[in-house]
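Weekly structure sync, notes
Attendees: PL, DS, HV (note-taker this week)

Item 1: ORF6N domain-containing protein
DS walked through the input record. Source organism listed as Flavobacterium micromati. Sequence as pasted into the shared doc:
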Amino acid sequence: MNNKLSVIPDDIVISKIYFIRNQKVMLDRDLAALYGVETKRLKEQVKRNLDRFPEDFMFELTNMEFENWRSQIEMSNAVKMGLRYAPMAFTEHGVLMLSSVLNSGKAIQANIQIMRIFTKTRQLLSDNSDLRIEFEIMKKKIENQGKNIELVFQYVDELMEKKEIIPEREKIGYKK
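Item 1 (cont.): predicted structure, written out as tokens:
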């Protein structure tokens, strides 16, 4: 295995992962750049093998999604990149399937690196989920303790009020 081909920094790959339709995806242009092929060639290979890319593997952005995405990047870059058509978005499974239609050494190495990064991000999300659950448990305990403290103060206030309300009794005994 030639590791000289996989010198793309992780942060560059991570910056190419977008969250669209509640899932992590990578766009055709970004994948083509990482694989060292033209976007046109990547799309040709996908279209030749459409049966390998069901909708949960790859989809084309709607006009609204495309406009939202375009507004997030600098328009000058959008013009330079030739972004006139809505890009194809590949889920993690779609990116994995791309490795079966793109066979260059660079594409294979880039694909391996992308898969490792998807795995790392999934693990981070899983770790964060565990922390979030623990945080929620602590939050509930604190809320319950706060309610208990409020209840104690409420009882103390009621006792103080009763003490103030109790009228003085007539004194029994001899009067002077």
